[in-house]
Amino acid sequence: MKKYINIIGLEIHIEPNTKSKMFCSCPQNHFGAKPNSQTCPICLGLPGALPFANKEAINKTIKLGLALGCEISKICKFYRKHYFYPDLPKSYQISQKDNPFCVGGSLMGKKINHIHLEEDAGKLLHRGKESLIDFNRSGCALIEIVTEPVFNTVSEVLSFVKELQLIARYLDISNADMEKGTMRLEANISLRPTSGVGSDSPEVDDLPDYKVELKNINSFKFLEKALVAEIDRQAKALDNGQELKQETRGYDEKTKTTFSQRIKTDSDDYRYFPEPDIPPINSTEYIVHSTKIPELPEQKRKRFAEEYKLSKDYVEILISDLTRADYFEQAVKLAPDLTKSIADLMINKNMDNEYPEPAGLVAKLYALSHMQYAGNDETENATKQVLSENPDIITSYKNGKGQVVGFLIGQVQKKLKGNGNPKEISVKLLEILRR
Amino acid sequence: MTKLTKKDVLHVAELSNLKLTDSEIKKFLPQLTKIIEFVGTLSEVDTTNIEPTSQTTKLVNALREDVTTSSNSLNIDEYFKVKAILSKRT
Amino acid sequence: MNIPLTIKETQDGLKSKKFSAVELVDAYLAQIKKYNSEYNIFLTVTEELAYAKAKEIDRGDKTSHLAGVIVSYKDIFLTKGVRTTAGSKILESYIPPYSATSVSRIEAAGAIPIGKLNCDAFAHGSSGENSDFGVTKNPWNKEYVSGGSSSGSGAVLSANMSLISTGTDTCGSIRLPANYNYAVSLKPTYGAVSRYGVIAMASSLDTVGPLGRTVDDVETVFNVIKGVDGLDGTVTNSKFVTHNAKFRIGIPKEFLVGGIDKEIEKNIQDVINTLKSENVEFVDVSLPTTKYGISTYYIIQPAEVSSNLGRYDGIRYGNDRNSFGEEAKRRIMLGSYVLSAGYYDAFYEKAMKVRTKIISEVDEVFDKVDALIAPVAPTPAFKIGEKADDPLTMYLTDIYAATANLCGIPSIAIPSGFSKNELPLGFQLMAGRFNEDILFKLGKMYETKTNYKPKTAF
């Protein structure tokens, strides 16, 4: 029987892919930009600057909330959260407190506490006796998802985070890339001794009196290692009768252990108060009734399994990339009886990389299965049609863009319902283009 | 009403990121106490079922379109420097 | 030359070639050179800029609204490339990289900027004595204060060193200096004029407004600076125009009670008698919750101040926090306290709720009247140093001002005479949100009835 129950809660930050920052019109995407090249009086916290909230960032937050089954708060407010640190230019962060955009909700059976929107701080780099500050990231929009402490295993955490990443991509609200920093994770971990007869699900109000915050984890791989290392550390400490401190810890890949970054004494006093410069948001006036949530990963999984009768593994690979999933479905439309083969070619041979157009892949399939190609005349007509429908492409080709040929072959295949001989199509195309 | 102590003043100074001298603390203590007593008279007012006002415009949804502009931008192109920060942020 | 005292006089003179814009700048600069070191009105004089702009005006278009009008700005208005100190040692060498919206608009309208004006540091104060650069003396009597926090903005007009000026009003800071200097000023509706580029004091109370010598001039500048700018999300455009033939003005009985100087009481009564006519009626009204206005204000304002002054850490600009003056430190401390854990509910949140009560009381009164009349301060200007020791006494000077800021309503300060000490006297009229038009109409009515003429001390 397990000696301890892991009690884990998550705080996940996602950088939405808006064009501009949360409260000013500097660019939101700061990856690779020179230090302080994307700043203005507002995100630098200059005297006299005022915040002006980005409508699209709110859109994306509400979209995420709807996809996760949250209740969208009727009246939402921004709050000022005060603390002093060199990368926080105003010495307060505009965030949310009592009236976040989304409340409740769940994913994979794990309850979410709320989702709120806030601005990011700048980046601090350490260089010997100096610290260097880059404010490109300051003021960037940040969506924060806070779960209840309802995770008990590392694999649950990993599945949840991966699914959340996928949903963010499906909704086109963010690429949620851990390596690029567009998704960041913090985990709160504590251990509770199991009491006698085993119930596997601890009551939420039965929480231990400490929690350790794991921060600065920037990949799924490290997340797994860090969680395992920390759980191990806590278990050993409790075994030895030691008391565990409320603190923040990071993960060190070299030693494969977690290390203390900051002891949290009492709760920080952020002196929250509602942000007077930003009037409240009334979501009922605001939510466009047709905020359509596109098909979500879980729905696509079920549908792919049912409609295409593919194995679980195959389905997972295809749906984990929306572009590939769409490609697959387009190819299958062209050749419904070749579903399994299309899947095989994509998954085992990555053939969709070679054929930008699904029709091209289908043609290849026909070739491989020695089926009847379309006739000479048919091919010529289809080629001529495609060229007349795409005059701009012709100009591109004449300007030296050879790669458009691939696109044109695909278009011709489409007209021929995939029955065209790629070699022949190519010859005919080049014949006409070179005139 | 709450009587302020020197400890309170020091705690508030820390929250405010201000370093006060001993003479400043001595001076502020009675002044702050007096003001807090004075403003504490608000407890007399009945505010049951009253919503707080955080700003007077009665506006909602004052939002900006998601566009980037360079009209405001300041191209600094180098780091701001500060003495090495040894503590971690909250 | 005789410096013209109004916008109309200035522009008529320029158009008829009675004088040139460059000659105007010569005259103003001579006045500044003569008196500024004694009265400490300007912190920065922008001689080169003024001449450059004046030459432009002389060469070209004189038809824009403020063409040839000499303007000076309270030193909390950011002016690109020109030092902006907020009256504080924290920013004593700060050169901002951008200008406030109101500054850009005034200059786009043809005004000639002549300098930055002294004020209480970070706008904390109502006398001018809290400036880190020394107090501004009242041109009417140099032993007396000029009012604050926009002390230089009022004094510059009575010293005849500028035709118009700008100020901010968080609790009377535009109205009081005008009142002590025999000038007109407008505290606009909160949300009528953009605060972008003006150093923030208390975000939900701050307003940006003009000072001038006549109601007309103040109205002209207001029309130039008001309206949406895409940077301040609390601003809206208002198209309110009053078509009233008759006006009803309320006299809040809580404002004319004990403690008010007898001269001021009599002066207000004179104003009432002047305005009273078949078209203007006065009625008694009651605003019982306003007596808590000062306490409410003295919780909300320091809280927001402590928040807004957090950014001055000396890293990106300015000097570090040890350069804060005593008043700034006191307000920051008070603010952090009322927002801190354990005290937020009893202080800040309570104050926000009392504010709601005050606002609805005032809203109800404006259902019955078009405007309210009140003194601007309980006493005329006082001697420098007289009230400086007890911060609580200083706070009481704000008692007539707080209502307009707590409710976000506009108020105009208008001169109405002189005390027996030959210090200016005046009154204020308040109206409902975005009802500046009513204030301008009533103000002009008063000026006409009293045959008002602008006056300067020298």
What would your notes on this structure say?
The complex is a heterotrimer of chains A (435), B (90) and C (458). Chain A has two domains: 4-194 and 206-286, no CATH class; 355-433, Arc Repressor Mutant, subunit A (Orthogonal Bundle). Chain A is built from 13 helices and 17 strands. The model of chain A has no long low-confidence stretch (mean pLDDT 89). Chain A has helices at 55-67, 154-170, 220-239, 283-286, 297-308, 312-319, 322-334, 339-349, 358-368, 376-389, 391-398, 404-415, 422-433, and strands spanning 4-14, 71-72, 75-76, 79-82, 92-95, 102-103, 106-107, 110-119, 123-127, 130-134, 141-147, 183-193, 212-217, 247-252, 257-263, 273-274, 281-282. In chain A, strands 1, 2, 6, 7, 8, 11, 12, 13, 14 and 15 form a ten-stranded mixed beta sheet that branches. In chain A, strands 5-4-16 form a three-stranded antiparallel beta sheet, with no helix packed on it. With 90 residues, chain B is mostly helical. Chain B is built from two helices and one strand. In chain B, 31% of the residues lie in helices and 4% in strands. The radius of gyration of chain B is 22 Å and the shape is flat. Chain C is an alpha/beta fold and 458 residues long. Chain C has one domain: Amidase signature (AS) domain (Amidase signature (AS) enzymes, Alpha-Beta Complex), CATH 3.90.1300.10. Helices cover 37% and strands 15% of the residues of chain C. Chain C has 14 helices and 13 strands. Chain C has helices at residues 7-15, 21-39, 47-59, 101-108, 151-158, 175-181, 215-225, 262-275, 293-308, 326-339, 345-368, 391-396, 402-407, 436-449, and strands at residues 42-45, 70-74, 112-117, 137-138, 141-145, 164-169, 184-187, 207-212, 247-252, 280-285, 371-374, 411-418, 424-431. Chain C has an eleven-stranded mixed beta sheet with strand order 1-3-2-6-8-7-12-13-11-9-10, sandwiched between helices. Chain C is globular. The model of chain C has no long low-confidence stretch (mean pLDDT 94). Chains B and C meet through α1 and α2 of B and α9, α10, α11 and α12 of C. β10 (130-134) of chain A pairs antiparallel with β1 of chain B.
